[in-house]
Amino acid sequence: MKSKVKQGQSFLDKVLQLTGSIETALDVSVATGIGITDDLPIDTPIETDLVKNRRIVEMFNKEDDTEPATAIKNYTDDFTPVAIGWSAIGINFRIS
């Protein structure tokens, strides 16, 4: 089976979609030359004939575009405030 990466999909998402099991990730990685943690550009083709669970493969390959997409992009541990700025009760934020 062959499929192209869509927005928000990681390598593991594609492995689950194509094989029905995350257990096959290392086998697919070796066969395709793609690292398990690699960021995949959209439209990257991934092909494998290894199917571990046919029911899961069928569920994720229906015509209704139900596909796993769990990739997290641009994640940082830094907290960036989205309000006007930082406030601390009793310092610059007063409660009357």
Query: Mind telling me the C-alpha Rg?
Result: 20 Å
End-to-end Cα distance, whole Å, is 65 Å
Identify the overall geometry.
elongated
Largest sheet: spatial strand order: 1-2
Oligomer: single chain
Poorly predicted residue ranges: none
- The count of strands amounts to 2
Largest beta sheet, briefly? 2 strands, antiparallel
Q: Provide a count of the helices.
A: 3
Helical content stands at 25-40%
Rounded average pLDDT: 83
What order do the helices and strands follow? EHHEH
* Count of discrete structural domains: 1
Strand content: 5-15%
Category from helices, strands and their pairing: alpha+beta
Description:
- With 96 residues, this protein is an alpha+beta fold.
- It has one domain (1-96).
- 25% of the residues lie in helices and 6% in strands.
- It has 3 helices and 2 strands.
- The chain has helices spanning 11-19, 25-32, 54-60, and strands at residues 2-4, 45-47.
- It has a two-stranded antiparallel ribbon with strand order 1-2.
- Helix 1 crosses helix 3.
- The radius of gyration is 20 Å and the shape is elongated.
- The termini are far apart.
